[in-house]
Each structure stands twice: as C-alpha cells, then as structure tokens.
Amino acid sequence: MKGIFIFLTNFTWGIVQTLAGLLGFLIHIRKPHYWYKGSIVTVVRGHWGGVSLGAFIFVCADIPKERAPASDFINHEYGHCLQSVRLGPLFFLVIGLPSLIWAGCFDNWRQKRNKSYYWLYCERWADKLGRVRRK
Fold first, then answer.
1. What HEC string does the chain produce?
2. pTM
3. What is the pLDDT of residues 64-95, one digit of tens each?
4. Domain boundaries, the chain
C-alpha cells in the first residue's frame, strides 16, 4: 500500500520530474523494468551510474565495482524518489541540479579532499531515506 501511495504522490505532487522520468521510460520501453517500493526501475546498458526522476529510477546494467553494492545503489536512488515525494516541484532545484553538478563537475575536488560522492547533503539524505549505511 505504501508503494502505491509513493507512486501516486509522484504523479501528483512530483509530476514535473515524474513526467521527465516517464519520457525516459518510454524511450527505454524495451529495456528491463521492475517495480520497487513505489517506483519503476529501468535497467540501461553502460557504466554511467543511476538517476531518479520522480516515480522512475534508471540504473546502469553494469554497476561499476567501485560503487556501492547493487542493493545499496538501488536503495540510494529510491531515496531520491522519496525526496521527490517530499519536495514535489522543488525537487529539481533542491536535489536534481546540485546532484547533477556534483556528479559532473566535482570529481577532482572530491579526490583532492578525499570526499565521497555521498558527502553532499542531497546524496547523504538520499542514503538516509533509502536506508543505506556507508562506512
């Protein structure tokens, strides 16, 4: 029942990011999909990581070995799905944009300062909501 609530909330309060996710889902309609706690997970080829857009989660088929175990990886992305439920139309500004910039532009900064990708507030919060425990 909780999963249905999360799914429907993302299609109302979180409609902006869910529509973007629906477009991605339709583009990848022939890829493997499965239901996960109120979201639809789509598995796409490559070593690119993952992204959550409302009720839709997209993950790479081959999660790189340096990333968290598969279950933690999915739960982290699910945490972003829950952020979408909580923030609704503010999700892109508060979570999406900072996460995208953090992933794409700060790799060298993180390495120089020995900071994990999950150090940024929005990534730590996604871990907390997804119940991911990192060492």
1. CHHHHHHHHHCCCCHHHHHHHHHHHHHCCCCCEEEECCEEEEEECCCCCEEEECCEEEEECCCCCCCCCHHHHHHHHHHHHHHHHHHHHHHHHHHHHHHHHHHHHCHHHHHHCCCCHHHCHHHHHHHHHHCCCCC
2. 0.89
3. 555 545 688 889 999 999 999 999 999 999 99
4. 2-130
